[in-house]
Amino acid sequence: MNISWGNIAKKISEIVGEENITTSLVDLITYSSDASIDSGMPNLVVWPTTPEQISKIVKLANEYHFPIIPRGAGTGLSGGAVPKYGGVILDLSRMNKILEISTQDLQVLVEAGVVADDLNQELAKHGLFFPPDPASSSAATIGGMLAENAGGIRAVKYGTTREWVLGLEVVLPTGEVLWVGRRAMKWVAGYDLVRLFIGSEGTLGIITKALLKVRPLPETALSAFAMFSSLEQAVHCVYKIIIEGLEPSKVEFLDQITLDAISKYTGTSFPPGEAAIIIELDGEKLSVEKRLERLIEIFKEEKALSYDVARTPEENMRIWQARKAALPALSSVKPTVVIEDVTVPISKLPYMVKVVQEISKKFNIPVATFGHVGDGNFHPCILLDIRNRDEVERMEKCALEIAKAAIKVGGTVSGEHGIGTLKMNMYRHEAPTELVKLLLKIKRALDPNNIMNPGKIFPKEYLEGNA
Ligand SMILES: Cc1cc2nc3c(=O)[nH]c(=O)nc-3n(C[C@H](O)[C@H](O)[C@H](O)COP(=O)(O)OP(=O)(O)OC[C@H]3O[C@@H](n4cnc5c(N)ncnc54)[C@H](O)[C@@H]3O)c2cc1C
Asked: Which domain holds residue 369?
């Protein structure tokens, strides 16, 4: 069908008002990419403010067969919010109200465009917090976190976003507005559609509201930093901390390239060594102190070159701000950073980290490695200049080989960033054909006209009947 975008723009501005739609070239270019290396031009960008407006736009999309791409803050790293086939970007960032904080039930009801840090700032006033904590929390929206099942720095203890959701309001790909889930802490009443929408990368509907679980803030939190003479030693130390049941709330590791980049980028100076780990222990004060003692013993047993404990909130914040700067810091080393997201069973971590180093050498391309690691998730970052075709070819081979190595030991190509457009090629190696066929049946049942975020997770042709 030939789409007259002038006509569509007119119809959508009648729904949302002229001030909430743009076709300006500068705006379209701004919305043509997310935080990944992928891009594609949209035809329109819309800022809806109610589910009813979204429902009307979606019905229009079904009538005229144009793609709808939901978008939060555009911090996604797998190309999820990139309009590969043009269409309308629905930017949810103006639906950013915290609607209800229930201290009695430890629940919060939010609109999808609420930013994670804003939510935690508000919750802190009530002595509460929402644990999922991506390093992008100063910008990432709850809708984007739900759509990607974001993990982050606290996932090792508190799990990923999925574990903190009770209910969702969703505009289905056919335009109906549906509430899924209950306020009750548990239920077995029909299929769990809440979990179906979480991690669906905007391909099964638009999340407009979320009922989230929250927790009382821990009494205290202490962070420790240790430096090692090799990456494998650092990772082995992490393995020991987890397997002994010290229950850290954060475990991050950083290799030499990443440490150097952070030093230059933030001015932080690190003691000598090849790899560092940063650990946070939270909870009741006495328990934290006791676990900290054992943590320091483990550092010594695992032959840390040096270690330090951040005891004041300021020191604590400085350490974690340095960690959160890892990705932006690496972007200043080479023009392009391609971030992988492999996750393996924790016993396979030391092996996997070593394999990544070997693959980097094999393809003669630098790979910086950092990550949450305590839950088996880490981020090999391939550094290159995307304008150099030879480097791009080596990067693609390197990324695929890393992915295959993770799959071979029972891992996955994506622990928290999603498949999007960039990991489709790797996902083919992870998911058996029968599984992909089942996912496609679900997608077709919900989105018969394939208007919701086409070209993500599986190639568009699959949905046109060629799978
Ligand atoms: C510096 C940096 C650090 C990061 N650190 C982490 C980390 O530690 N852990 C982690 O998990 N991720 C991390 N990320 C990735 C990213 O921040 C997360 O995936 C985040 O959840 C994306 O949120 P967003 O609002 O930016 O979503 P967007 O990028 O706008 O969208 C992401 C996907 O969600 C879909 N979507 C967005 N909103 C909705 C909605 N309301 N309904 C349906 N679908 C929707 C989009 O279509 C797209 O497919 C990091 C990114 C950066 C740039």
From this structure: 334-427
